[in-house]
């Protein structure tokens, strides 16, 4: 058995164990051997930083900056689950509609590893900004797990760009 097959088997066993033995909603990760299992349904929660910028931009730009920030939020990812990605605008996009994704990360030791994930769909684009979310790293991990499980081998392609 290959490493990928073992990882899938471990994920299925962990999900089964999670549903059977865990009654707490706080349990999100289960470690099986060296594989990291992430609960697939993750809903994005905005942190206080977004609200702060929204309030600060309101008087400074006479509401235009806040409106642009609010409209831009509609293109960000709201939920990642087994079926695909849901944007804040309400669009449900299955994994087969994902064409390309691009991870932007900082240089070593300069803060969080992933700063942004740009996602290109068949029609449209979306993004994940972990710094603006309370559970941003968890959402990125769920996206990675969904891409691994949801896309065929020939379409798995990611681009990494280091930010200085």
Structure description:
It is a single chain. The chain is an alpha+beta fold. The chain is built from 4 helices and 10 strands. A 4-stranded antiparallel β-sheet has the order 3-4-5-6, with helices on one face. A 4-stranded mixed β-sheet has the order 9-8-7-10. Strand 5 and strand 6 form a beta hairpin. The protein starts with a helix and ends with a strand.
Architecture blueprint of SSEs:
Blueprint: H1 3-21, E1 29-32, E2 35-38, E3 42-43, H2 48-60, H3 64-73, E4 77-80, E5 84-87, E6 92-94, E7 98-106, E8 114-121, E9 125-128, H4 136-150, E10 158-163
Parallel strand pairs: 7-10
Antiparallel strand pairs: 1-2, 3-4, 4-5, 5-6, 7-8, 8-9
What characteristic shape results from the CA principal axes? Answer: globular
The main sheet comes to: 4 strands, antiparallel
Radius of gyration: 17 Å
How far apart the termini lie comes to: 41 Å
Output the helix-strand order: HEEEHHEEEEEEHE
- The portion of residues assigned to helices is 25-40%
**Total number of helical segments?**
4
Uncertain segments are 16-38
Mean pLDDT: 78
Q: Strands across the major sheet, in which order? A: 3-4-5-6
What oligomeric state do these chains adopt? single chain
| Strand elements, count | 10
Strand content: 25-35%
The domain count comes to 2
